[in-house]
Design goal:
mainly alpha
């Protein structure tokens, strides 16, 4: 391999063909040897610049990830160095999927070594195609339906989760942070395809079933997505269509797996949407319609179930947080464009009428926003006080981008009299959780 890199411009052979032979014939037989793994990663470190020029990492990065999947912590330090070399050239959806599938790859390789050929693991041809794609040696542009991953998880769930798989799962979050950090430093905006992948893979059904792993990945997605929206607020408009589809998907009854991500997305819409052009005004109208639909569906669900006791309603803390953030986002959009104020006020009035079906803070918050929106100048000062972001946060690079930081709308929660605070310890705990996460 070193000879091919050093003399690739002089020898009379197609070096790319020889690389393909190595990774498809030699590598699968040798990668489980720890000496080979260290030599391979050292080779990548020494020749990083030359390999980048030959698109080596772009083509064979799925194979290199097998080294980490099999050897785990033994090669993690070396692999992180190689990963930092390859990730600037691989800011694509394929790399994100490969990172998330590391525990699955480790489990499949272990199953193959201990039991039988992987073709016998599943019988369905479509799932077998998913299996072959996950274990591929080269990058592929195949439009795979990752929904079939859950069938692989079910097939592997009967076996004990080994230490190797747990170690590999613990490496996923640091790699995700590295991936998103490089994405933030790059000049290009995140693509709609990448946002689709984040929304899709947020579902726990598409993440390897290890205790704590799914939650850590979901928390990382929420954290990084908020940072991405802060650094490039224009994504609220350039990716409007996909964001609205995501909000509508979570509007359907029973869609609760993505509520934490929904909270982050809706908060970003309320925080960064601005009314400074005709196109943006149209986007604000579309966002308001999507949020109105969400509120109306929650009201319909509550009316069908009947009035719920406040204690029972308080148990759904995440759902209540989502509704509070939607109320705030509705109010912020209406405060920035007065043409939306009447629609937003009507929607909030309907929510206030059904306040008994939700946690008490929902009704109070709706009434507060109704009172604030009745005075446009106050609403503008309280709900959409402008702030200037640094020039580096503007995707165009020409000056600073406008954003809106809501520092005041949570004050009624903090300043309410002690007599109105929850009295029981259980209610007090729920109240504090809602207070910390609502706005």
């Amino acid at each position: 391999m070193q000879l091919l890199v050093n003399w690739s411009d002089s020898i009379a052979y197609d070096v790319d063909t020889l690389f393909a032979v190595f990774f498809n014939s030699v590598f699968p037989k040798q990668f489980k040897d720890p000496v080979f793994a260290f030599q391979m990663l050292s080779f990548c470190r020494r020749n990083g610049v030359a390999l980048l020029e030959r698109k080596f990492f772009v083509t064979y990065f799925p194979t290199l990830f097998k080294l980490l999947a099999w050897h785990g912590d033994l090669v993690l330090t070396e692999f992180k160095v190689v990963f930092s070399l390859m990730v600037p050239r691989l800011l694509n959806v394929q790399l994100l999927h490969v990172i998330l599938d590391l525990p699955l790859v480790a489990a499949l390789l272990e199953h193959e070594a201990n039991f039988c050929h992987l073709e016998f693991l599943v019988q369905d041809e479509t799932v077998q195609n998913t299996l072959r794609h996950v274990l591929r040696n080269e990058s592929s542009e195949t439009n795979l339906k990752y929904s079939h991953l859950q069938h692989l998880f079910k097939a592997l769930r009967v076996h004990h989760i080994s230490r190797r798989v747990n170690d590999v799962a613990s490496a996923v979050v640091p790699l995700l942070f590295c991936f998103f950090n490089v994405l933030l430093r790059s000049a290009s905006e995140p693509s709609e395809e990448l946002l689709n992948a984040v929304f899709h893979r947020f579902s726990p059904n598409l993440l390897f079933p290890i205790a704590g792993f799914q939650r850590r990945v979901q928390h990382t997605f929420v954290n990084r997505l908020l940072v991405i929206f802060e650094s490039t607020p224009n994504l609220i408009f350039s990716l409007k269509r996909r964001i609205i589809v995501f909000i509508r998907m979570n509007t359907e009854a029973g869609q609760v797996t993505s509520l934490e991500l929904l909270i982050a997305v809706v908060w970003a819409v309320g925080e960064y949407a601005r009314a400074d052009s005709d196109a943006n005004l149209s986007a604000l109208d579309d966002y308001l319609e999507a949020l109105e639909t969400y509120v109306q569906e929650r009201i319909i669900d509550a009316s069908q179930q009947g009035a719920l006791p406040s204690v029972a309603a308080a148990a759904d803390a995440v759902g209540t947080r989502a509704l509070l953030v939607v109320v705030s986002a509705l109010s912020k959009l209406a405060a920035r464009w007065q043409s939306l104020a009447s629609r937003a006020t009507m929607c909030l009035c309907k929510l206030a009428q059904f306040a008994r079906a939700f946690h008490p803070v929902v009704g109070r918050r709706a009434n507060e926003c109704i009172a604030i929106l009745a005075h446009p100048s106050i609403a503008s000062a309280v709900l959409c006080a402008p702030r200037r972001l640094p020039a580096c946060h503007n995707s165009s690079g020409s000056g600073s981008a406008a954003a809106f930081i809501d520092d005041n709308s949570a004050l009624p929660f903090v300043m309410q009299p002690v007599a109105e605070s929850p009295r029981t310890p259980a209610d007090t705990l729920v109240f504090h959780k809602l207070l910390c996460g609502a706005i």
